[in-house]
Design a protein that fits this description.
By secondary structure, the protein is mainly alpha-helical. The chain is about 45% helix and about 5% strand. It contains 26 helices and ten strands. The strands form four sheets. A three-stranded mixed beta sheet has the order 1-4-5, with helices on one face. The chain has a three-stranded antiparallel beta sheet with strand order 8-10-9. The longest helix has about 40 residues.
């Protein structure tokens, strides 16, 4: 059996060896036959030879790969192995293999030279060759440039470049060439410009459009725009053209209404021409009704005008009528100052807005109209339309802006009867002051020179007043300054059931009287401390004050007023009015505010005033606390609470007071006083002062921002 297996293996090996030799011989004979046929020009070939010749013919095309072997001197191309014969038992049956045709004849895309070397052959799909950026001769289509004559807008954050001159925030239209949209205010940056100088006098005439201006007029107009439009222009044509652009932006483009109304409002005080001022007021009034400005902006607009438009008054009254709320004194004063009704004792001429007049009217209004006047929503309406002054908008149907409807509160005056009565009672009190002349005011001016010299103990008339003002502060009280100013005070009536109340009221000062004192002191070069202009804080005539030197034109630093008020509040909370404690508080304030040396000198002068305060309830923190409750909301008072907690803890550490847990009775009492006087809840205190999470300067900055509105006047 074994011999049989060995024999079979030998036979198989021998057969394989003989088959391989026969195959090699056939290949040699085939090569010799092909070579002989080529030399003799023979056309007789086998089936495989015909396929091979056909492949060689196709290889002459530039887009195909050659399947023949390279002859002498021929270009070398990659070869593809021929398919085996079907009868070859080593390959078996096989399908015909079609060579792949190249599409991208370039380096791989990852190669740096791919983009420059890539081209598509004719074998590439037609659609791909036309759309791909790699296609031969295909260049990306350039987007068309915008038309240079387009009308373009440059707002508050934009700029216009006219040659080498740049205009920032012009709030105007411009173009590069003749504008395709007719607009008289359009600034064509290609037109010549001549700027006025020492040798050129500014032109006195005007023009109806920027294109029709002379080069010198364009220079004046562009300089006025570049200067921020904060000066009155030399001719009415310049602000008129600028107003044309605002009208187009709001009415035609329907954009930037709030910005345009603010810019027009800013221009009203600069207008010296009644016609232009009337146009600006009409534009602001209509736009205010269109966007419905908030109350504070409507009041700011009303304060700047002698005659307030009826549309503005209707917008001010509508929210109160809708909610059924009584009119505040400021709204009532604004309405009656505009004189929409005929009153018995009507003032001669318009009445300007004045805080002093408002304070006088408020007292009369509260006494005559208990609780305030409540209006009902009227059934009649007031229709508001706007006709643009820009001539290029006259034929634009989309530039009308439409007709606005407002409630007409002044068609029927029955709801205003109590208000008219209060106004008639108020008018006689302002007539004498309106008739005062400048000569009488100068005549009644107090002699501060004698007062200052007497307070400083200096001889009279030696001309040393200007120098001695810087020597030391002047300590006095409000009563002395009131007598110096000739301010009349109500008598302290005795003997009736309200004697105590009358005496206390007689000791209180009025805001108008304090303002007179402060203004007179500024003229003489002094600052009055503490601050006398905080509404809601109680000031008595016998309260001590100090006059500190203050150069004319100087301004307080940003945080000086806030630091002084918080210093006064801290002294009242701790009841530490001794000089040593007050000096420590001033040093601790330096950790929270960026105070100058002058600020430090003012705080030292204020500490002398605080140390001299008389004993009594007015020395406590309730006075300042009630004032802060009047001015600040609960969240803002919470900011002041957090500041005072941090500040008092820092001061306790500085003064070597115990602030450890269980032994901080004093600081706990201070915290309770802070919350009680501010009317806020006791919450967990923030990380305290030194080494806490919130930096001290950040606490001071936040508190200063909250208190800033108290010192605007």
């Amino acid at each position: 059996m074994i011999y049989l297996v060995i024999g079979i293996v030998v036979v198989v090996v021998a057969s394989a060896f003989l088959s391989q030799r026969a195959r090699n011989a056939a290949d040699t004979d085939e090569e010799q036959g092909i070579e002989t046929a080529a030399q003799e020009g023979s056309v007789e070939t086998s089936g495989f030879e015909e396929a091979l010749r056909k492949a060689e013919t196709e290889s002459s095309s530039a887009d195909s790969l050659s399947l023949s072997r390279a002859g002498p001197g021929a270009e070398t191309v990659p070869s593809v192995p021929a398919a085996p014969e079907a009868e070859d038992p080593g390959w078996g049956a096989a399908d015909e293999v079609t060579p792949l045709r190249p599409v991208l004849a370039a380096a791989p895309i990852s190669s740096p030279s791919a983009l420059s070397s890539a081209t598509y052959s004719s074998a590439a799909p037609h659609a791909l060759a036309g759309e791909s950026p790699y296609a031969f001769g295909n260049t990306p289509e350039e987007k068309p440039k915008p038309d240079s004559s387009l009308l373009r807008w440059s707002g508050k954050m934009g700029s216009i470049q006219v040659g080498e001159f740049s205009i920032r925030g012009p709030v105007a239209y411009w173009s590069e060439g003749i504008s395709s949209t007719p607009e008289p205010s359009c600034i064509d940056i290609t037109l010549p410009v001549e700027y006025p100088g020492e040798e050129r006098e500014p032109p006195s005439e005007g023009a109806v459009s920027y294109a029709e201006m002379s080069p010198a007029q364009r220079g004046v107009y562009l300089l006025w725009l570049a200067g921020g439009r904060i000066q009155s222009p030399i001719h009415v044509c310049y602000p008129t053209l600028w107003l044309f652009g605002l009208e187009r932006r709001v009415l035609s483009d329907r954009l930037d209404a709030v910005i345009c109304i603010g810019e027009a409002f800013r221009l009203i005080p600069l207008s010296r021409w009644a016609s232009l001022k009337e146009s600006l007021i009409r534009f602001v009034t209509w736009t205010a009704a269109k966007v419905w400005l908030p109350e504070e902006q409507l009041l700011a607009f009303s304060r700047s005008l002698l005659a307030v438009p009826k549309e503005i008054l209707c917008m001010l009254l509508r929210p109160y009528a809708d909610a059924g709320l009584p009119l505040p004194s400021l709204i009532a004063f604004t309405v009656m100052r505009a004189a929409p009704f005929e009153t018995e004792g009507a003032a001669k001429g318009p009445i300007p807005h004045s805080d002093e007049l408002l304070e006088k009217f408020a007292s009369v209004y509260k006494s005559k109209c208990s609780g305030g006047v409540v209006l009902t929503r009227p059934k009649s309406a007031l229709f508001v339309a706007y006709v643009p002054s820009n001539p290029s908008l006259s034929n634009d149907k989309n530039a009308s802006g439409g007709v606005l409807e407002l409630p007409d509160f002044f068609r029927d005056a029955k709801d205003f009867v109590p208000l008219i009565a209060a106004w008639n009672a108020f008018l006689p009190s302002i007539q004498p002051s309106a008739q005062l002349t400048a000569a009488e005011e100068v005549k009644e001016r107090p002699d501060w020179d004698v007062f200052v010299r007497g307070a400083l103990g200096l001889p009279e008339g030696n001309g040393e007043l200007i120098d001695v003002r810087l020597l030391k502060p002047i300590f006095t009280n409000l009563g002395v300054l009131g007598d110096l100013m000739g301010i009349e005070r109500p008598p302290e009536e005795q003997g009736d059931e309200n004697a105590a109340k009358n005496v206390k009221n007689a000791k209180k000062t009025k805001a108008a009287d304090r303002k007179k004192i402060v203004d007179a002191a500024k003229v003489e070069g002094f600052l009055v401390l503490p601050d006398l202009g905080i509404t809601g804080k109680e000031y008595l005539w016998d309260a001590p004050v100090v006059l500190t030197p203050f150069p004319a034109g100087a301004r307080l630093s940003q945080d000086c007023s806030a630091a002084a008020l918080l210093f006064e509040y801290a002294a009242a909370l701790t009841a530490l009015f001794v000089p040593e404690a007050l000096e420590g508080m001033i040093k601790c304030l330096g950790d929270y505010f960026s105070l100058s040396s002058d600020d430090g000198a003012r705080l030292e002068a204020l500490s002398s005033v605080l140390a001299s305060l008389p004993e009594g309830p007015d020395r406590g923190p309730e006075n300042i606390g009630e004032c802060l409750q009047f001015w600040l909301n609960r969240e803002e008072r919470g900011v002041v609470r957090d500041f005072m907690r941090s500040f008092l803890a820092n001061f306790a550490r500085f003064a070597n007071l115990s602030v450890s847990s269980g032994e901080d009775r004093e600081t706990q009492e201070w915290d309770e006083k802070v919350c009680e006087s501010l009317g806020v809840e006791e919450s967990d205190p923030p990380p305290v002062s030194f080494g806490g999470e919130k930096p001290l300067l950040e606490l001071g900055l936040t508190a200063g921002k909250v208190l800033a509105p108290l010192f605007k006047d």
